[in-house]
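hey all, quick one before standup. I had two proteins in the batch that finished overnight and I want to keep them in one place so we stop losing track of which output belongs to which input. First protein below, input sequence then structure tokens straight from the run.
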Amino acid sequence: MDGLEPKDTADSAPSVIDRYFTRWYRTDMKGKQCEDHCILQHSNRLCVVTLAETHPILQNGRAVKSINYQISNGCSRLSNKVSGKSKRGGQFLTDFAPLCRITCTDETEYTIYSCIRGRLLEVNENILETPSLLLEKPATEGYVAVILPKFEESKSITENLLSREQFEQVVSKRGAAESQPS
């Protein structure tokens, strides 16, 4: 057949994430180098908070020891309860509201933040039982939380976030700065 063989369509088809979600990024959360978060925004306004591939938890073969959604004595993200079509009762989050604290086996602790304003719809309880999901599938089964921005704010929530291209520029500048002799 002239050396032309049909390409495997699974290799060229975009993933569900790439097809239905727009990736947004927040770099160096709270001024902490490389603590990058990724927000997957669906066309229906839902936003899924995940770790960006550059986050220290996903680097250097780290392992997760524990994940804690208990933010303070009076606030646990696990006690969040939403009901009804308008998702009443969900905790309201600001841009820098902590979602959880992740402790690695080397005892380093990272706080994961919401990055956007909105109502907390759910936290991923699966990562409590299987913390390795955070490392193995951070953009899918290892997500941290789902947030619904207010309708009137859904267009403006991305103003403080970086697009994929902008994020890649920040990461490449970081790499260039690290490779510079001091």
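OK second protein, same deal, sequence then tokens:
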Amino acid sequence: MLCSLLIWLDNTVLSTTLETLADPIRGLGADPGELQWATGSYTLTFATLMFTAGALGDRFGHRTVFSGGLVVFAGSSLWAAYASDAGQLIAARAVMGVGSALTTPAMLAILMWTFTGPARAAAIGVFSTSAGVGMAAGPVLAGFLLDHFHWGSVFLINVPVAALALAGLAVLVPNFRSPARRPLDPAGMLLSFGGLVALAYGLIRAGQVAAWSRTDVWAPIVTGLVLLAVFVLVELRVEMPGFDPRLLAQRAFGGGNMALGLLLFGVAAITFYNAFYLQGALGFSPMKAGLANIPTALGALAGAPLATRLVRRLSLRLVTVPALIVAALTMGGYGFLGLQTPLVLIEILLLIQGLSIGMVIGPVTATLISTLPLEQAGAGSAVTNTVRQTGGVIGIAVGGTIMSIMYRRAIEPSLEALPGPVRDQALVSAEQARHVATAVHQPALAHAADDAFIHAMHVGAGWIGVIALLGAVVLFATLPTAEKKTAPASKPASLASTT
């Protein structure tokens, strides 16, 4: 449970830290592309190593893999805390993703091996609660640390928690191994990682150069798509693949996962926007921004159990499709936020967003896994986790690129009379524009940067909302109109919402 808390703390802490990392004085002066990579590199390694990590646990013991993942996570957290530039931070975040990928499947496997019957349901509830505590506490803790200490302190907090968890593993947890060892899948891991890296690079590069026709934009995108297609073909030929694309051919399982991937695309992109809106455009301190994000976590924490109760009375389709529509509308709702929007309206939007997202992810994931035969549950979980993390990677890349392109187009008319170096720095991002505006005593430039960012956020939020809405359409088209209510489907809902 400490590790679940740790992973969710880290995920939410980084979103609060993005604005500080973009600051040339308090942080690293990272540009939007570097911040996209700082977020996306973690998710990339997490997504592509997850199914391999599960096989490693079957082979060498889940406690062994779990402990190794914690050591990697703690060591890379130290590296991230003392990174001297954005490149080092990106590399450290990628290694942190490796640590998370090693711990997550082992965490769930140990829980399922340790408990049976009602005790398992209770353990799953505690597991879900620990994730919710991490979601709620992360932004507030990050805000406090950023207000009082160096930005690297947000990563240093991982080290003592990891040390405590390692001690508990050594003393309390047996080294469970599966009697049926799944083979490793190095070809699948390399192809999926290479494909996602190339695709994400091309998409992020498009935002940096504000053009899609350049070779360094379209060539990586095409290469990434080809590698991912080859990955699918290779996995189809393997007898026991780490990622089984055959499962996606099943209508409900494939459609449900596609809908979750589109939803997580929107969640990742809109969370990226939210960090710069609250601290950059509105000028909130990190602590105030962390407190402002609590409604999202509380809503998500309440949404999963609420939806589980509703699904027992209604069909999964009747509960989750409207919830996903509401989630998409709240993402599009960022298109109506501005510099003068009252905080109470922002809080209401975030609460509804968290509640609706929580009502979709948990019940849909649990039901999808429960529809598979028991011998396919592990493979189904690997597919679901990979699809969801991939949606997050692409969401950060596409959402950040839309924001960068639209920001540049909006601020360019305000920069015509400025010197070349000032103009070049202001074009990078709103954060850089505010910094240079202070340095050259040009408050009008800072106001122009705020207006350009708001315009970019409005355009991006519209596209994000539409893409998330497509997820609701897919969910409506692929889920059956009514489901037979079964006990197994309801038990793991909280577990599914945190994986």
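Flagging for whoever picks this up: The domain at 1-181 is CATH 1.20.1250.20 (Growth Hormone; Chain: A;). The radius of gyration is 22 Å.
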